[in-house]
Every structure is written in structure tokens, then in C-alpha cells.
């Protein structure tokens, strides 16, 4: 699962960076939480 999360972040960045370079502007912000790795009660994992 960790590989999927890291690969997803890398691949999406790889594809949007081309557009950002051509427009000479852009920001990539990756957001995560510990609930991505484990569930707590009624929260989704």
C-alpha cells in the first residue's frame, strides 16, 4: 500500500509538472494523514 501511495504522488507530479513548466507557474502540494495507513474507529483508512 505504501508503494501505491508513493507511486501515485510521483506519477501525478510527473504529469502536471510539464504543464507547470510551460505556463511558468504552478505548485504541487501533497497532503497525507496517518489515517492513510491505519483506521481509527469510524474514520476511513
Describe this structure in words.
This protein has 45 residues and is mainly α. Helices cover 49% and strands 0% of the residues. It has one helix at residues 2-23.
Mean pLDDT: 80
Q: Residue share in helices?
A: 40-55%
Cα shape: elongated
End-to-end span in angstroms?
A: 11 Å
Number of strands: 0
Alpha plus pi helix count: 1
Low-confidence stretches: none
Radius of gyration computed on alpha carbons: 14 Å
**Largest β sheet strand count, sense and barrel closure:** none
Quickly give the structural class. mainly alpha
Beta-strand content: under 5%
N-to-C order of helices and strands: H
In short:
The protein has 45 residues and is an all-alpha fold. The chain has one helix spanning 2-23. It starts with a helix and ends in a 22-residue tail after the last helix.
How is the secondary structure organized here?
Layout: H1 2-23
Quickly list its features.
1 helix, 0% strand, 45 residues, mainly alpha
